[in-house]
Design goal:
about 230 residues; 3-stranded antiparallel beta sheet; 5 strands
Length: about 230
Amino acid sequence: MDLLTVEDLSCPVCCEIFKSPVVLSCSHSVCKECLKQFWKTKETQECPDCGRRSSKPDPPANLALQNLCEMFLKERKERRSSGSEEICSLHSEKHKLFCLEDKQPACAECFTSQKHVDHTVRPISEAVPSFKEELNTALKALQKKLKHSENIKGELEKTLQHIGSQTEHTEHQIKQQFEKLHQFLRVEEAATITALREEEEQKKQMMKEKLEEMSRHISALSNTIKDTEEM
């Protein structure tokens, strides 16, 4: 592992340690996902490193390189857990520089790597104070936004509560109005039915009187006919 540099284990596309590397027909390796995204931007399936066209649309996994990367990451994790925060986990050198673009410390070898090409670096002793000042400015802006967001949230919660109270009040009023309407309709219904019954009784009484009169008339006619027949 000591004979390999971090560049040997880095993907030419993302410049990070290989993740699920595949090997192309030109023998170069690339992260599987990086190659997939890279080919989406190209008309031909070419190698991101040398530009040679790949003869395989689905390159095989580079298991040997995958194992080396896993060993490297394991060692780096162990170095980090040992408490050596000031040592570069990639090159085992002290962090003496600070990359302004990536906002992270770097060693001298990091600065010369592909990952930091055209990046601006400053000595840590010079960059950290200004970076802290920048962080404080950003922090104040975030705190201001947080307070503003909390105020808006409070107003929204009040509005939500008001909507609930208003709906409940309006519902109560609607129920009252409809109860009055129902009561009015019940009274009107009872009055209408009463009037109908009274009209029914009047008509029945009228019909009874006519029936009685007709019965008397029929009886009189019957008697007259009988008397006439007996003469």
